[in-house]
Design a protein that fits this description.
The chain is α/β, with parallel strands linked by helices. The protein is built from 13 helices and 27 strands. An eight-stranded parallel sheet has the order 16-15-14-13-12-11-10-19. The structure holds alpha-D-galactopyranose.
Length: 500
């Protein structure tokens, strides 16, 4: 044993600095993803049961409404939501040569969608204006091939730059922005929008798109100003499942002063999206102006960016994701099933530089522990989980950060509570998140520059009695505790526990 340890410490520095914590999933099935799911009555239904384990696997869904069918080999559910609102208690099952698993899936037909935070990928921080139909098909392929889809990642989302760009000298971008009926025209890199969403949907995944209420997007491409109705209809006809709506040039038309000034463009598009014949999640992107968290849900939003762009955030002593989290974590009162605070994407893996977009994407400079802290913060804050690194260059370490089923369970917990801050100073952050089964998730973060012991007493956490402790990153049970949780944590690291 001693010898083995010695050998380990002589491994190359990089491996020692980037410890992989997430255990490899076993060959037996484990069903992942949300336990609750909302769909509006009569709308198209699509859900790929996320499950790890050896394939082939056989899926079953007990208690499914008659209008929804399961493909037993792929685990993809398709059909139409029942016309009648109400709760359908479905049990999902998966079996293979190594065993079987089941998971409840409460399918609620009603007005509220996004009962848990959406999960997926957005192209912005890797590809910027270098996007094409091909790239999204490849991203969808990679979401399945990498296993990300087996953990619940489902949206493949286009950000800015799919439209025409007035005045561009690139012939692929410089065409009429709309056809004679006013319908928006994608640029020549997107020859077949319905074909693209069909490709994504055939894998059981969802498709996201982007525009804004002003005449132009942030990158100066054509946006929805005075064409909101036809654009909402077009996105629905093309088959999109999510719209990010980015304020940007709208700010040149309106200098917002009143609440009404802030809400107006979002209420308009939110109402239009709800009237389409498919569920389209509405992601408000206006950087937190006008306390968007107070009215984002009222205007039909399922998530709202609470801050400026994470990729543009200046690093202070700590990397930029911390300062974004420090703002977002104060807004716990405003998050819940159907409406989530969005602190922007997860920028790890191979990732571009938002300050110098033409630079080739590079491996993140965040340390391993910073990446675990990042994912832990986003999970504790019940934030949308959108990776924005390069799907074509996913590495083992990045996947271990993104794909820990027990960490994701905290993010996707049906209670939908955003963690509360118990303590925050220059050296430590302690957060607690109540979970539906009566357990609580506790995040102990070391913000200091040295290894440090971080503790939280049961009094701080509002707990009594004895609690089992699960180390979520390592997926290991620890010794039960009855007075405090405490851990020795590396610089900028985290201990994420579930107290049962
Ligand atoms: C804004 C948004 C980003 C991204 C870019 C695209 O900066 O906040 O998330 O969508 O626009 O131009």
């Amino acid at each position: 044993m001693r010898l083995a340890l010695l050998a380990l410490t002589t491994l190359p520095l990089l491996a020692a600095e980037m410890p992989i914590l997430t255990p490899k999933p076993g060959p037996e099935p484990r069903i992942n993803g949300p336990r609750v799911y909302g769909v509006r009555p009569g709308r198209p239904f699509l859900y790929r049961i996320p499950a790890t384990g050896a394939r082939p696997m056989k899926f079953e869904a007990v208690g499914l409404p008659a209008s929804i069918k399961l493909d037993a080999a792929t685990g993809i559910l398709t059909g139409t939501a029942p016309a009648k609102p109400g709760l359908n208690k479905v049990t999902l099952r998966a079996s293979n040569a190594h065993g079987k698993a089941s998971r409840e899936f409460r399918l609620t037909v009603g007005d509220t969608i996004a009962l848990t935070p959406p999960m997926g990928w957005n192209h912005w921080y890797t590809h910027y204006d270098r996007v094409s139909d091909k790239l999204f098909r490849e991203a969808a392929d990679a979401m399945v091939a990498s296993g990300m889809a087996d953990y619940g990642y489902s949206y493949v989302s286009i950000d800015d730059c799919w439209m025409m760009k007035p005045g561009s000298d690139d012939p692929a971008l410089n065409g009429a922005p709309r056809d004679s009926s006013g319908r928006i025209r994608p640029n020549l890199r997107f020859p077949d929008m319905p074909g693209l969403t069909a490709y994504i949907h055939a894998k059981g995944l969802k498709a996201g798109i982007y525009t804004g209420p002003g005449p132009l997007t942030c990158a100066q491409y054509t946006a929805a100003w005075q064409h909101e109705e036809i654009d909402a209809r077009t996105f629905a006809e093309w088959g999109y499942d999510l719209l990010k709506y980015d304020w940007c040039s709208y700010g040149r038309l309106v200098k917002p002063a009143t609440r009404e000034d802030f809400t107006k463009p979002y209420a308009l598009m939110g109402g239009l999206l709800e009237r389409q014949n498919r569920d389209i999640q509405f992601n408000l992107c206006q950087y937190g102006m006008g306390d968007v968290w107070k009215w984002g849900a009222e205007v039909g939003g399922q998530s709202w960016r609470t801050t400026g762009d994470l990729g543009l955030e200046r690093d202070t002593r700590l990397p930029g994701f911390y300062s974004i989290a420090f703002k977002n974590m104060l807004l716990a009162d405003y998050a819940g099933p159907g409406g989530w605070n969005d602190p922007d994407y997860i920028l790890i893996g191979t990732i571009g530089n938002a300050r110098s977009m033409s630079q080739a994407p590079k491996q993140t400079t965040l340390t391993a522990w910073e990446q675990y802290s990042y994912m832990s913060l986003w999970s504790m804050m019940a934030s949308p989980l959108f990776f924005s690194g390069d799907m074509g260059r996913l590495d083992e370490f990045t996947l271990n950060v993104l794909c820990n089923a027990e960490v994701i369970d905290v993010n996707q917990d049906p209670l939908g509570k955003q963690a509360r801050v118990i303590r925050k100073n220059d050296d430590e952050l302690v957060m607690v998140k109540p979970l539906e089964d009566g357990s609580v998730a506790v995040g102990l973060f070391n913000l200091s520059e040295q290894p440090r012991r971080v503790s939280a007493s049961f009094a701080d956490l509002g707990l009594k009695g004895q609690r089992g402790v699960r180390d979520l990153w390592r997926q290991q049970d620890l010794v039960p505790v009855s007075d405090q949780v405490s851990a020795e944590i590396d610089r900028h690291g985290v201990a994420l526990y579930r107290l049962k």
